[in-house]
Amino acid sequence: MNFFDEVGPGALGSRLRHITDLITSQASQVYGLYHVDIEPRWFPVFYTVASAPDRHVGEIAERIGQTHAAVSQVVKELVRHGLVSVQRGEVDQRRSVVALTEQGAALWPVLQQQVTDVREASEALLSETRHNLWLALEEMEYALSQQSLTSRVKAIRDARVGSQVEVLAYEPQYQADFKQLNVEWIDRYFRVEAADLKALDHPEEYILQRGGYIFLARYQDRIVGTCALLLLEDGSFELAKMAVSPAAQGLGIGMRLGEAAIAQARRLGVRRLYLESNTKLTPALQLYHKLGFRKTVAGQPSPYERCNIQMELLLSPQ
């Protein structure tokens, strides 16, 4: 069993590179048949310049789906080989346009014939396969434009990790974890305040006995995250003390904790959840938005210096 048989679609990128290397190697031989002295990787740029002259690098890059930097590099190589020239545009002097030189123009009819022959040969090649690779590539490019491979892998990873995460109710044995997780992130960005230590050192007194709740996330036998619901005077709850260990961030654990807290609030018939944060904490704010929280100015002044944004989630009509 070779590597591709063993790994299967998990090696999709490697398989595509293997096919690309194979075709590129054979394409070099094809150029030799026609005595066309250009590199295969130059072809998209040269073809675009020849068929649609006086375009600037940005337009060429957009047309062939490559980066501006990659196209600039190819243009430099084509200039060194005397096949194209770069000049200031007549309409917009700030932009340089690329055009064929006499040497490049002489090469263009031969390359056009080569393209025609290669297209015919490629169509014959595709007809020998059960699945039309060209059409399949179009479908794959469209699917990837709708959802990237990265996001697809992340969704599967998060679902797997999510099935291994346990959301636990607070017990006294977890007090040290509860404090460490919160102190860790506060110290990283701000400073621990007296109001923090009251709740972190005495969570039973300042959170649980006042009608609140504490949730912890356990993953691979370690407490890696926590959050709390603090009962407010108006009967609503504040989502607070949200923290995830740096070693476990990016695994969707914050989302699991937030969802557990919201589910508890719904069971209690709570109308409104409230939270305080800081605009410096971009990932946290993104998480809160995903959970449904929106910015509000209806909150009371915060006891924390670091708070510069207040958010709320309305769970039922007023």
UniProtKB/TrEMBL annotation:
Gene3D superfamilies: 3.40.630.30, Winged helix-like DNA-binding domain superfamily/Winged helix DNA-binding domain (1.10.10.10). Residues 9-158 form the HTH marR-type domain. The keyword DNA-binding applies. Signal peptide: none annotated. The keyword Transcription applies. It holds the Pfam family MarR_2. CDD domains: NAT_SF. InterPro entries: Acyl_CoA_acyltransferase, Bact_Acetyltransf, GNAT_dom, HTH_MarR-typ, Tscrpt_reg_MarR-type_CS, WH-like_DNA-bd_sf, WH_DNA-bd_sf. Residues 176-316 form the N-acetyltransferase domain. Keywords: Acyltransferase, DNA-binding, Plasmid, Transcription, Transcription regulation, Transferase. PROSITE patterns: GNAT (PS51186), HTH_MARR_1 (PS01117), HTH_MARR_2 (PS50995). This is Bifunctional helix-turn-helix transcriptional regulator/GNAT family N-acetyltransferase. It comes from Hymenobacter volaticus.
